[in-house]
Amino acid sequence: MKEYNFSDGEVLLFNKPYQWTSFDLVNNVRYFIRNKLDYPKLKIGHAGTLDPLATGLLILCTGKFTKKIDDYQAQEKEYTGTFTIGATTPSYDMEKEVDKTYDYSHVDEALIKSATAKLTGTFDQIPPIFSAVKIKGKRAYDYARHNEEVVIKPKQITVSEFEITGINLPEVHFRIVCSKGTYIRALARDFGELLNCGSYLSALCRTRIGEFKLENAFEVENFKNMFLETK
User: Do residue 67 and residue 156 come from a single domain?
Assistant: First the structure.
């Protein structure tokens, strides 16, 4: 087994489980390393938050490497997932119930490809109201949860690749490579608007951050067992 020095700094790759927050994963790993591996005051942070309903790659940095978190967060990211067309939700994903449904009988492969082309490149994106974007010192989701209307300023993003990997209506499967700050939920919203039938994000997995790949990531229990089995 590799020798680890968590105080000097390690970069740990994990596959975040479905319905865990990013903080759930950090807290779980932090508790294990501090209490089971005897690093009582160890700092651990994560690079690039994933929503609870997303799975996939989450980078954890320990010790002195927590200073590198901003560098990792800034790197290009790759996702695979599914948009469900013909319906919308207030959160643009499955966190909230469907609020409207639409006829999507007019949608064909040509229209889907046209929509992906329009959402490829560098453009301004309006983040979701259910997001951690700060507005006047508060998170956007705090306003949303109290039904308060606010104006969210658009942010420039880059979608360098937007590939349709499967069409099984109402589901459209995709692979996206994008810049820091891109909300895939917001792409789902915009995708539905371009199709004129609504859309929401029904599955999402982050497969890469820069050079770091999901295929090299730990499952949380496997990481713990690796140390426990050597004792």
Answer: no
